[in-house]
Amino acid sequence: MKRVSLILLATSAIGGPAFAQQADGSAATTSQGLADIVVTAQKRAESLQDTPISISALDATSLESKRVVSLADLTSAIPNMQVSPHPNTGTTLRVTVRGIGEPSATQTRDSPVAVYVDGVYVSKGQGLANELAELERVEVLRGPQGTLYGRNATAGAINFISRAPELGEFGAQQSFTIGSRNEFRSRTSINIPIGDTLAAELTYVRAKKNGFVRNLGAGAKYFGTVDRNAIRGALLWQATDALEARYTYDSSWLEDTSPFIQAVPFYPAKGARQRSGSSGAVALRPGSTRVQGHNLTVSYDLGDALTIKSITGYRKLRDNTNQVYNPGPVRPFLPFNNVNTTDQHQFSEELQFIGDVADGALKYVGGLYYFSESGDSLDLSNMPSGLNPRRAHWNNKAYAVFGQATWTPNFLDERLHITVGARWSKDERAADVYSTRTPPGGTAIVILDAAGKRNFKDFSPTATVQFDINDDVNIYAKASKGYKTGGFNPTATTPARFAAGFGPETLVSYEAGLKSEFFDRRIRFNIAAYYSDYKDIQTNIFDPFNPRVFDVLNAGKARTQGFEADITALLFDGMTLGASYGYVDPKFKEVIDLTGTDIASTFRFTHAPKNSFTLNADYKSQPTDAGIIEANLNYAWQDKYFGLTTDPRVVTHSYGLLNGRLGLSDAGGIEGLRIAIWGRNLTNTNYYANFFALGDVGAAMMGEPRSMGVDVSMKF
User: Fold this and answer.
1) Is 303 exposed, middle or buried (0-12, 13-18, 19+ CB in 10 A)?
2) Residues with Cβ within 8 Å of residue 644, at least 6 apart in sequence
3) I need a surface site. Which of 97, 145, 357, 700 has the fewest CB within 10 A?
């Protein structure tokens, strides 16, 4: 399959192999059938149908119709992927792909799912709920990543690709959203050409929305209030036909109040969504999260044989959260609060070498990568039992050499493609922690004062065989290894356990898939199945007498298996139906505790619904005097899943959400004017966004009730 009929050019390369899938089934169409979805998953623009291994892609049109404005909105669009807020704050997100995710928000641990913004790795989950401006595309890759990426990952990668400034053309766009619970969102963007070779783009986003639980106590009026600002500036310089440089700055301020945590019964019972909190609650104050990023991408084209690309990134995070726990209707618990402060900054440099030789028969990507970060955190828990401050500091560095090559031999009509790749990684990790406990009316007692330093190395290979049965159908098989570095755990039970740290975990994945189009490309069907051996899993072993304290041990072995499938059908010009389904079945095979006992029977993978599916309908009319009618209806359902590794009572019920949008482009014959009405959770489903336990009391963050609103935008 060699066609690429639509090129969505992104100036920052995003790496990693892909499984051909448009998550929402709303692929663009042409009079000849479904149009190609083009991605840069293998660091060159190519049809998603031609790239092996599992990927879901959402273009700008799909992002608008689904109202995806942050990472948190992707759950309803991507099968076998979960995005949920951590219990400590709604702005810290937990991402799970194929049943694998980071169970805690500990700043000294890496996530198995790597998140990138224009090719720059974002190392911390704090602030991931920030507003993302001028997105051109989002790509979600499943399975181990490393031979095309700066940072390694065992579960997958998420790439946010922003739009580049346009040369030689002045433009502006203004959009407004007004919705339920006083929702207001404004996005202002302006593109300014500067001569023939330089262009700048400036964007400002303002977002506000009241929470759905009123605070009857002191402080802010609502739990879960959204109050965010985001700015983005981009500069593109096309120095010559061969040399291009792009600089991007992004900054977000989040001053949300914490979500409401209410007491609920354990599974199978289910709590009702509360409308108000307790008048005796600890004073509710907004958090404060500031995220900043600098990105400089320089690309020099030496011809078909070689393109050299440099991606330099610097990111900074300042996160202050104030989580309030309040009495609830099932079994009241005393109000208390957690105050968390994190300061972190990171620098990365990635040098890529991309090209092909032998008249295109051998395509290659190579890279060098350097990453460093340092940070400090303060966790101040003001619980009924006393004050529990914990300070941690970390300093990490990573080095990597990676590469991948694809050979297409000149026999079998050039339908066979063989890919091999490898990655060498070295990680240097250092951390220290100081923790005390002060009983009510007592003096501080030091419970943890320790430091540690460890280095880790890894070699991760990959191999893929792909065969084009014809121009519209291909099959592939892949084996790959993923690696996640070790580190240190600031919640360790003893100084010795902290100093010992924990080692890396690895995952070996085997995957096979089919990608196909039929009936003159009016039907697209793709499926990928996988089986993975997961070893040395960084496992939380909790202290039975203190649920806030746990050790992280390389105590686990597991296997994960499942598949993703999607189908998209063009019924007639402008009308597209789509469906996607994900199945995941992870299971611990061995977990060894501190006494040497195998306790695997008590461990479960969390945030891993066994079944999930989406149904989509998209319609776009021919132009009329009134404008172009655009409609989207989306239903996303997910199975029940465990919320805690070792507590079978903490189960989030299955639920489905129905969302819709009806719009008019070029409204009233005015070019560039778009008006739309939309609704989310139209059936007002009662569901848990997160479910956990506080001792022997169930606690939940409830999902948002029905929301409705209007979007108006004008493009000049």
Assistant:
1) exposed
2) 606, 650, 692, 693
3) 357
| Token pair belonging to 148 | 């095309």
For residue 323, the one-letter residue type is Q
Domain range list for the chain:
29-715
Residue 332 has pLDDT above 60, yes or no: no
CA atoms of 395 and 357, how far apart (whole Å): 41
Q: Cα–Cα distance between 74 and 76 in angstroms, integer? A: 6
* Residue 154 near residue 71 (C-beta atoms within 8 A): no
Could you tell me how far CA 160 lies from the centroid of its own chain? 9
CA distances from 604 to 201, 356, 363, 582, 586 (A): 47, 45, 42, 19, 8
Residue with tokens 């989580």: 323
How many Cβ atoms are within 10 Å of 680's Cβ, its own excluded? 22
Strand locations in 519-545 (E): 523-543
Half-sphere exposure (CA, 13 Å, Cβ side) for 373? 27
Q: Are 575 and 544 in contact (CB under 8 A)?
A: no
Superfamily of domain 29-715: TonB-dependent receptor, beta-barrel domain (2.40.170.20)
The three-state (H, E, C) secondary structure of 540-588, written as one string: EEEECCEEEEEEEEEEEEEEEEEEEEEEEEEEECCEEEEEEEEEEEEEE
657-698 confidence digits (pLDDT tens): 999 999 999 999 999 999 999 999 999 999 999 898 877 888
Torsion angle of C-alpha atoms 145, 75, 637, 273, degrees rounded to 10: 140
